[in-house]
Amino acid sequence: MSQNLERELSALFEDHADQLKGQWITEMRESGLLEQMSDVETEARYTALYNTVVSTFRTGEFEDVEKYAKIITEEAVMHDMSVERIIGGILKLRDIYERFIFSKYRDDEEKLYQLLDSYEPIANNILTIVTMAFVEERERVIHEQQRAMMSLSTPVLQIREEILVLPLIGTVDSERAEQILEELLDRIVEVEASVVIIDLTGVPIIDSLVANHMIKTVHAAKMLGADTIITGISPANAQTLAGLGIDISMLITKNNLRAGLWHADKMLGFKVRIEDR
Amino acid sequence: MSEDEEMTKVNIASSADIIAARGKGRELAMKMGFNVVDQTKITTAISELTRNIVTYAGKGEVTIEKAQSETGDKNGIVVVCVDEGPGIKDIGLVLKGGVSTSGSLGLGLSGAKQLMDEFEIKSKPGEGTIITIKKWLRRR
Amino acid sequence: MDIPILKIEDFLVVTIQSELSDDEISKLQEDILLRIKDVGATGLIIDITALDIVDSFMGRTLSNVAATAELLGAKTVVVGIRPAVAVTLVELGIRVKWNVNTALNLERGRKLLKQLIGAEQRGGVS
Ligand SMILES: Nc1ncnc2c1ncn2[C@@H]1O[C@H](COP(=O)(O)OP(=O)(O)O)[C@@H](O)[C@H]1O
Ligand SMILES: [Mg+2]
């Protein structure tokens, strides 16, 4: 009995696929939830999603939805897509189907409620599956990033010739900081770096011991012929440095990593020009 | 030769002895597993203190050996420099750094203190000077 | 031990190959200054790559040579300081009294010398 209703629903959605899908895309576009994609891509993507949903109603199996949810959420998380976009799309489709069932069976109340009764649990289940997939994927990515960050034996990055970047992370203790900074000096020699950027954006409050190691490293780097730019110093950290008797005006500081990189390029360019004379 | 192979004593009377003492310090530090930076700091501190013996006391001796902290949780190296030279009048002043009676930089004592984890000095004018410095192995 | 002092273009290059005793250091200091006068060098590079330790005495020697060379008309760049040596020199507190130009290696040292000499010439004109 219920099996029949579901099959009826799927047939209904299938028969009116063009109309309902078109409405879905239009509403997504109007509420600004549509990704930046070409029309063909949009059509293909929404058709695939639409067909998956329809087949779920037909078979009563959620495996396909789960698979599909995994794929789209992976993509969504990778592209930093918002929750509203992902969940919003499924919510919209649920409403469209519901309104459609209403309009179609407005005059046959008994049938209408039978259909809605079998429709709602399936629709909700789909929504739950997609939401969970999204949350789990995001958690997975965050964990992965954290693990990657911690397991990096040397977080010194060579971003281009002669420029090294060391992003210090807030949780480093003074011993680890000392070790990292010593590695930085080795790397300067190894890659013949001329400019080093130490980025403190990830250090909301700098430990005074860490700050001390950092300043010593700036001077040591200079002995190796490398200038250091410090980026992302918070006001609190500026105070800590000043408290250590460090004259911050002696240091090259920039607001953020981007400005630091820009300055590094300028310094390297400047040197080149002098040599040319 | 001492029975304890990890203990080295070097008599200090000339600049060649300074180089010898440095070599012994480096050797033990390396054997104990100090990293290159710490080996260099230890060797440099030995160089500063033994040079002071040559410059200000004329002669003396240095012993270099393994050390353990009182609580037993840290291993490291201890260096003791002993001379019977003129001694230091104002220890507080020379430890601040930048003060020299020989017209040099005045960074030997203050520097050695910075480079090591522990620094202890006993000195009496007319009797001599004993300086003990220690550095602990890093935990990782 | 005789330490070779090479002449490359207008520059003298001194490569210290092993730890030096105080006497050797004093002799080297003299030799360098004589050679600068002899050949009218405008630049001096001291390569200390081989040194695994530079104490305050050696540090002072280097800065004395640089200061004297300057009086004789030559700029000095010290190259090849090892990372561990650099950290140690900073911790010794040598920086405050040490105005020695440094560069990573010979090639960078030559570039820096050219910059320093060029900057001085431009400064002299204006
Ligand atoms: N072993 C010693 N015996 C006597 N005086 C010493 C000794 N070591 C250091 N001093 C005194 O302490 C001063 C500071 O020593 P140091 O910090 O090594 O600097 P520097 O040797 O460059 O003068 C010396 O100038 C000297 O007067
Ligand atoms: Mg001294």
Gist of the model:
The complex is a heterotrimer of chains A (277), B (140) and C (126). With 140 residues, chain B is α+β, with helices and mostly antiparallel strands. Chain B has a single domain, classed as Histidine kinase-like ATPase, C-terminal domain (Heat Shock Protein 90).
Keywords:
heterotrimer, A: 277 residues, alpha/beta, Globin-like, Transcription Regulator spoIIAA, 2 domains, five-stranded mixed beta sheet, 5 strands, elongated, disordered C terminus, C: 126 residues, 17% strand, globular, binds adenosine-5'-diphosphate, binds magnesium ion
Instruction: Determine the N-to-C terminus distance of chain A.
Output: 90 Å
Q: Any guess at the CATH architecture of chain C?
A: 2-Layer Sandwich
Shape of chain C: globular
Secondary structure: helix percent of chain A: 55-70%
* SS summary, helix count of chain A: 10
Binned strand content of chain C? 15-25%
Ligand kinds: adenosine-5'-diphosphate, magnesium ion
Mean pLDDT of chain C comes to 91
Overall structural domain count of chain C: 1
CATH C-level class of the largest domain in chain A is: Mainly Alpha
SSE topology sketch:
The complex is a heterotrimer of chains A (277), B (140) and C (126).
Chain A (H helix, E strand, L loop, with lengths): L1 H14 L1 H14 L8 H21 L3 H16 L4 H22 L4 H43 L5 E4 L2 E7 L4 H18 L3 E8 L5 H16 L3 E5 L3 H9 L8 E3 L2 H20 L1
Parallel strand pairs in A: 2-3, 3-4, 4-5
Antiparallel strand pairs in A: 1-2
Helix pairs in contact in A: 1-3, 1-6, 2-5, 3-4, 4-6, 5-6, 7-8
Chain B lengths: L7 E5 L2 H18 L3 H22 L2 E9 L6 E9 L7 H6 L11 H8 L2 E7 L3 E9 L4
Helix pairs in contact in B: 1-2, 2-4
Chain C lengths: L4 E4 L2 E5 L6 H18 L3 E5 L8 H16 L3 E5 L3 H10 L8 E3 L2 H20 L1
Parallel strand pairs in C: 2-3, 3-4, 4-5
Antiparallel strand pairs in C: 1-2
Question: Would you kindly provide a written description of the structure presented here, covering whatever features stand out?
Answer:
The complex is a heterotrimer of chains A (277), B (140) and C (126). Chain A has 277 residues and is α/β, with parallel strands linked by helices. Chain A has two domains: 2-150, Orthogonal Bundle (Globin-like), CATH 1.10.490; 157-276, STAS domain (Transcription Regulator spoIIAA). Chain A has ten helices and five strands; from the N terminus they run ααααααββαβαβαβα. Chain A has helices at residues 2-15, 17-30, 39-59, 63-78, 83-104, 109-151, 174-191, 208-223, 235-243, 257-276; strands spanning 157-160, 163-169, 195-202, 227-231, 252-254. A five-stranded mixed sheet of chain A has the order 1-2-3-4-5, sandwiched between helices. Chain A is elongated and about 85 Å long. Chain B is an alpha+beta fold and 140 residues long. Chain B has a single domain (7-136), classed as Heat Shock Protein 90 (2-Layer Sandwich). Helix content of chain B is 39%, strand content 28%. Chain B has four helices and five strands. Chain B has a five-stranded antiparallel sheet with strand order 1-2-3-5-4, with helices on one face. In chain B, α1 (15-32) runs antiparallel to α2 (36-57) and α2 (36-57) runs antiparallel to α4. The termini of chain B are far apart. By secondary structure, chain C is α/β, with parallel strands linked by helices. Chain C has a single domain (5-121), classed as 2-Layer Sandwich (Transcription Regulator spoIIAA). In chain C, a hairpin with a 2-residue loop joins β1 (5-8) and β2. The radius of gyration of chain C is 14 Å and the shape is globular. The model of chain C has no long low-confidence stretch (mean pLDDT 91). The chains are: A alpha/beta (277), B alpha+beta (140), C alpha/beta (126). The complex binds adenosine-5'-diphosphate and magnesium ion. Adenosine-5'-diphosphate (ADP) binds next to α2 and α4 of chain B.
